[in-house]
Amino acid sequence: MSKAATGREEELKSVTVDATGVYYRELNHRVRELVDEGYREIILDGVNGQRYIGDGLVDDVTIIINGVAGNDLGAFMDGPTVIVNDNAQDGVANTMNSGKIVVRGHAGDVLGYGMRGGKVFVTGDVGYRVGIHMKSYKEQVPVIVAGGRAGDFFGEYMAGGVMVLLGLGEEPPLTGDYLGTGMHGGNIFLRGPVFEDQLGKEVRQFPLDEEDRCFLEGLLEEFAADAGMDLSGVKTDEFSKLSPFSHRPYGNMYCY
Amino acid sequence: MAGSMVTSEFLVEVDHQRCRRCKRCILNCGFGVFDFQNMTTADSSKCVACHRCVVFCPEEAITITRNPLAFKEHPSWEVDRRKAIWKQAQSSGMILTGMGNDLPWLNVFDHLLIDACQVTNPSIDPLREPMELKTFLGRKPDRLEVSADNGGFRLQTEVGNNVELAVPIMFSGMSYGSVSLNVHKSLAIAAEKLGTVMNTGEGGLHPELTPYTDHIIVQCASGRFGVHSDYLNAGVAVEIKIGQGAKPGIGGHLPGEKIGREVSGTRMIPVGTDALSPAPHHDIYSIEDLRQLIYALKEATGYKPVSVKIATVHNVAAIASGIARAGADIIYLDGFRGGTGASPAVIRDHVGIPVEIAIAVVDKQLRSEGIRNLVSIIAAGGIRSSADVAKAIALGADAVGVGTAALIALGCRLCQKCYTGNCSWGIATQRPELTDRLDPDWGAERLVNLINAWSLELKEVLGALGVNAVESLRGNRERLRALGLDSTTMDILDVKPAGR
Ligand code: SF4
Ligand code: SF4
Question: Does ligand 1 have an atom closer than 6 angstroms to the CB of B379?
Answer without folding.
Answer: no
